Structures are given as structure tokens and as C-alpha cells.
Amino acid sequence: MALSYIKSLRNANFLKEVIQIGGCRTFAVGGGKKKGGKGGGASDAPKASSISKEVKASTVVGANILKDGADPKVLADSEYPDWLWHLLDKRPALSELRRKDLESLPYDDLKRFVKLDTRARIKENNSIRAKN
Prior knowledge:
Largest sheet: none
Subcellular location: Mitochondrion
Helix content: 40-55%
Family: Belongs to the mitochondrion-specific ribosomal protein mL54 family.
Number of strands: 0
InterPro entries: Ribosomal_mL54
Distance between the termini: 33 Å
Shape: flat
Mean pLDDT: 76
Number of helices: 5
Keywords: Mitochondrion, Ribonucleoprotein, Ribosomal protein, Transit peptide
């Protein structure tokens, strides 16, 4: 049954009818000429922002997700929590944590070691089972 279905799909007329019924949308191939000649003209230049520099410096432009809301204001550094400033700090990799003595690791590094080691063991077990 599957072979007869595939053979029927190969019929070009049938495919054209399905495309017309389904409303499949295609995109035009670049056959037309661009206005302005060969190179990138004025239309390719980036648009100048209509927002003033003062507004950009005092608000987080584009952070508003509500229809009726406004962009949030930028606060002073002291107004933000301390953990925020450490989000991008480099943390040791699993290989570095394995070289260190586990008894002397701080709690955060020990917690990270357990998480990364468990993840590595799961990946290894999955790859072994996939080969069998």
C-alpha cells in the first residue's frame, strides 16, 4: 500500500493540484533588476535611529513586552542585586574540578562538579548503549 501511495505522489499533475489546493507559497527567484545599479546604494545603508541618545542612555530600549507598558528605566548599580554582577564570571570546567581536591572545594564548586560529572556519565552511558 505504501508503494502505491508513493507512486501516486510521483505523478506531477497530482502534485500540482495538491499545491494549488493547499495554497503552498513560493518565493520569487531574483530575476528582476535592483533599483540603483550594481553596488549597495543608499537603500542598503542602516536606518538612523529616531530615539535620542539621552533616552537610549536612560532606558532599556526594546525590553518592554507589554502592549500598554513602557521601556524600563536604567537604575543605579547599587539598586541591582549583588548576584547579578557575577553571572558572567568564568567558572571552572569539569577537567579543572577533577584535578582539585574535592574536600577543599567550596560548596558552589562542589555542586557544579557533581552536576557536570553526572552529566558526563549519563552521556557516556548513552553513547555505550547506542552502539549496542
